[in-house]
Amino acid sequence: MGLHTTNVNGTELPSHLGDDMFSYQADALSAVKAQRLYCYLRDTLAWQQPTIKVFGKWHSIPRLQVYMGDADTAYTYSGQVFTPEPWLKPIDDMRNRLSQSLGTEFNAVLINYYRHGLDCMGWHADDEAELGEQPTIASVSLGALRKFKLKEKGSGVVTDLALASGSLLVMKGQSQKLYEHSLPKQRRVSQGRINLTFRHIQSTLL
Ligand SMILES: O=C(O)CCC(=O)C(=O)O
Ligand SMILES: [Mn+2]
């Protein structure tokens, strides 16, 4: 079972990533709009650096984040409960446009700010119970170009993508069951990046 890496620099996803699970649009937002929104969010949001429990130890996450959503979308992640901030107008507008064009209702968004190339996110799947069986996740990237890795759990095959400023990556269907994803460190990246993952939180578990 070898480890393979595919490098993808174009605007299309490689065909081995099934389009029933992954789709990518490089210019969902124009470069100018993406840069403007990046600066606005970076300078406006009340960024936090939560502490999470990983294998029994507490760590500050290596990035900043804000969790925003409808009032009933509290979310449990690595031993912490995140209660949503109220919607900010431009984010709410984006949420409504995405809900409409993808035919999925999004009610929350996790916004991550990677200040430079040393901020990162480790391997995980977005498979928390609150997201339901086959979640659709819409991921919008702003700012610095960063590598995004997808690993097929069964084979260990890793695919490297590059998520451009203004791009939209949609993960749906079996994607969170069959794959993990990560945003590795990239020492040479000095600019910041903001990523918004729109989600639907089920509030009727109990
Ligand atoms: O920054 C990214 O592109 C990924 C973020 C992510 O995986 C998450 O918020 O769960
Ligand atoms: Mn994720």
Task: Explain what you see.
This protein has 206 residues and is of the alpha+beta class. It has one domain: Sandwich (Jelly Rolls). Helix content is 16%, strand content 36%. The chain has helices at residues 31-44, 89-102, 175-178; strands at residues 5-7, 22-25, 51-54, 57-60, 64-69, 75-77, 80-82, 108-114, 121-124, 137-143, 146-152, 158-163, 167-171, 179-183, 193-199. The strands form 4 sheets. It has a 6-stranded antiparallel beta sheet. The chain has a 5-stranded mixed beta sheet with strand order 1-12-11-14-9. Strands 3-4 form a two-stranded antiparallel sheet. The chain binds 2-oxoglutaric acid and manganese (II) ion.
Across the major sheet, the strand order is 2-13-10-15-8-5
Report the radius of gyration as a whole number of Å: 16 Å
User: Kindly, what is the distance between the CA atoms of the first and last residues, rounded to a whole number of angstroms?
Assistant: 41 Å
Decide which structural class fits the backbone.
alpha+beta
CATH top level is: Mainly Beta
Query: What percentage of the residues does DSSP assign to strands (E)?
Result: 35-45%
Regions with pLDDT < 50 over 5+ consecutive residues? none
What's the SSE pattern?
A: EEHEEEEEHEEEEEEHEE
Average pLDDT figure: 92
Present as ligands are: 2-oxoglutaric acid, manganese (II) ion
In CATH, the topology is named: Jelly Rolls
Q: Main β-sheet: number of strands, strand sense, barrel status? A: 6 strands, antiparallel
State the total count of DSSP E strands: 15
CATH architectural group: Sandwich
- How many individual domains? 1
Shape: globular
Helix content: 10-25%
CATH superfamily: Alpha-ketoglutarate-dependent dioxygenase AlkB-like
